[in-house]
Each structure stands twice: as structure tokens, then as C-alpha cells.
Amino acid sequence: MTQPSSPSITRRQTLQGLAGSLATLGAPAFLSPQAWAQDKFPSKPISLIVPWPAGGPSDAVLRAFAESASRALGVAVVPDNKPGAGGILGATAMVSAKPDGYTLTQLPLGIYRLPHMQKTNFDPIKDITHIACLTGYTFCLAASMDAPFKTLQEMVTYAKANPGKLEYGHTGTGTTPHLAVEEFCQKAGMVLNPIPYKGAAEILQAILGGHIRLMSSTTEVMPLVKEGKLRLLATLGSKRAKAFPDVPTVKESGWDTVSESPFGIGGPKGMDPAVVRVLHEAFKKTLDDPKVIETLDRFNQPVIYMNSEDYTKYAQRTYESERATVERLGLAKKI
Q1: What is the distance between the alpha carbons of residues 181 and 290, in angstroms, rounded to a whole number?
Q2: Model confidence over 105-150: pLDDT tens digits?
Q3: Where in the chain is the domain with CATH 3.40.190.10?
Q4: How many whole angstroms separate alpha carbon 43 and alpha carbon 172?
Q5: The CATH number of domain 140-235, selected from 3.40.50.300, 3.40.50.720, 3.50.50.60, 3.40.190.10
Q6: pLDDT reported for residue 198
Q7: Phi-psi region for residue 304, left (φ > 0), alpha (ψ -120 to 50) or beta?
Q8: 220, 142 contact by CB (below 8 A)
Q9: Residue 334: what pLDDT?
Q10: pLDDT at 1
Q11: CA nearest 315: which of 128, 136, 174, 180?
């Protein structure tokens, strides 16, 4: 005697047949989970954590990205400033955020470095979904106008003749403006005296006040260079800064030190790949927005684009290379 078909199998077969018929008619009723997520996302405002104070260059750039991405996504991307702790508070927030695509953060280079230097509650590889890399900073070395050197080579010569006596200001121990110069010092065989400050405003006040003669910074220094109040010795990118084409890079001056600090947008771990694709396409589109490019140019930030896969690979490489740099400079945390 033939056994009747299982009700669940019969029901599944019926649903599959109906889905096929609807697909033939072009109906979207039986979309896959990924397609369904992509079709419905986003349906409400998205929070973008800006781990820096309001009003600075990073804030201005991220707000330009947010405004442009809002137009691409059809919902508001709302900047949420969470400054402090070396720029890692956005990554910290990802640990407890829902992976639904509605909470994102900027991913500064420090999130791959600071876990090697201090205890953090996040793993930058395991706890974060890397969505898209967008840009990076232009780091530079600037000197006071009364410094006893006018070029990078003259500065190196002076530093070698006066080991440890030439002070330079930076934005904090372990930050890129600090470590990039220390790496340069090792390559050049010189010793400088690093002086940490709370931020670029304090460094500028110190160098203009004659307390230091050299500083490592990003775009905050550029207006004073244009006004003739500071002298730009070199930039640390792979190419010359667009706004200062006559200023050499450290690398082309003979020392293989490059620091561009690429950064982009990320979210919590476990995000739906379809949602990641929607966000990636929206933020990639911002790089074609004239207003975004104008903002990047204003702060001398180059376009450094990576898709989700390449950005993830970059993060993995950077996490390991930052470990090596921190250990080499003797800044690794004690276990």
C-alpha cells in the first residue's frame, strides 16, 4: 500500500511551485532572505558614529560623506560625535550594536593599533564588518619660520648634530603623527624628542609661541603654511599633496616612510551581505559627488577607495603590521 506524502513535503513543493509561477510573472513575493533584506533596507535613519570632536576636519569630511550617502540611500545618515580615547569609541560601540546596518562608524587607523598597546573591548577584525574604504589623511612635518633649517634634509642634518635636542609636537603617544615620525627617525638614523599634546590646537599654539620648532600633524597646519606662518618640510603620503605640489614626500627625499592612514566605514559583525552591498554602493557613489571631492580637497585628503573584500584584507594586514610597529618601538602592552 502506497504511503501518503508527508504534509510538510507536499506543502513545501506547493510553495516552491507557486514561487516559480510568481517569479515567471515577475512578482517579488518569494524573494530570498538576502534579496528581501536588500529590497527593504534602509527604511529608517542610519547613525554614523564620528569618533572625533565636532568642527574639526574629520568631522567635516564625514558629514560630507553622510549627506551624500543620505541622497543615495533615500534616508538620513546622521553623524553622531563620540570623541575621545584616541578615536576608538566608534569601534567600541560596534560590539553591542545590532548588525542591521543602522549603526555605522568611521574606522580610523588607530583601531588596528591601540589593541596592541592597551586593553580594549573589541577586536578590529572579528567584531567589525568592513564596508568601504573612502579616503585618508595627509600627514606632514612642519617647522617654525625661525627654525635653524629650511628643508627636510637640513632638519635631518641638524637633528643628527643635536641628538634628542630637537623637540616635535604630536597628538598623543601611539597616534599616527607620533609613530610615523618615529619610524622616519629610525630610517634616518636620528633621535628627536617627541612632545605629546591633547590636540592640533595645542600643538599650533606651542609652535607659534616658540616652545617647539617642529610638529607632526595633518591638515590643521595647512592654512598657517599658506599664510607664511609655518614652513612645510615634507608630507608623508605616497604622492605629493595636491595643494602643495612643490613640497616633497619623505619617501622621495630618500627615506622609505609612507603614512596615509586610509579610513572608511564599518559596522558590527554579522551584517547581512545584501545590506553591506547596499551600503557599499551608496558610499562608493559619494566619491563621485562634487561636494564630497571639494571637501576632501579642502582638507588635502586623497580618495583611497577599497571595496568590502579588499578593505577587509587591508584591515587584516594592517592589524599585523601595526603590531610589528608597536613592538619595534617598545610601545606594546604588557601581558
Answers
A1: 33
A2: 999 998 999 999 999 999 999 999 999 999 998 899 999 999 999 9
A3: 140-235
A4: 40
A5: 3.40.190.10
A6: 74
A7: beta
A8: no
A9: 77
A10: 43
A11: 128
Tracing cell 567635516 back to the chain, one arrives at: 60
Residue of 137, 97, 159 whose CA lies nearest to 260:
137
Cα–Cα distance list, 82 to 50, 51, 52, 87, 258 (Å): 6, 5, 6, 8, 28
- Amino acid letter at 282? A
Secondary structure string (H, E, C) spanning the chain: CCCCCCHHHHHHHHHHHHHHHHHHCCCCCCCCHHHHHHHHCCCCCEEEEECCCCCCHHHHHHHHHHHHHHHHHCCCEEEEECCCHHHCHHHHHHCCCCCCCCEEEEECCHHHHHHHHCCCCCCCCCCEEEEEEEECCCCEEEEECCCCCCCHHHHHHHHHHCCCCCEEEECCCCCHHHHHHHHHHHHHCCCCEEEECCCHHHHHHHHHCCCCCEEEECHHHHHHHHCCCEEEEEECCCCCCCCCCCCCECCCCCCCCCCCCCEEEEEECCCCHHHHHHHHHHHHHHCCCHHHHHHHHHCCCCEEEECHHHHHHHHHHHHHHHHHHHHHCCCCCCC
Kindly state the cell numbers that stand for 175: 597616534
Please choose, from the candidates 184, 190, 206, the residue with its C-alpha nearest in 3D space to the C-alpha of residue 158. 190
Task: Give the predicted TM-score (pTM) of the model.
Answer: 0.76
Architecture of the structural domain at 39-137+261-328:
3-Layer(aba) Sandwich (3.40)
Mean pLDDT by 10 residues, the chain (335 residues): 39 42 42 53 97 85 97 98 88 97 96 93 97 93 97 98 95 84 93 88 91 90 90 92 90 91 96 98 98 91 94 97 86 79
CATH 3.40.190.150 residue ranges in the chain? 39-137+261-328
Helix axes 308-328, 176-188, angle to 10 degrees: 60
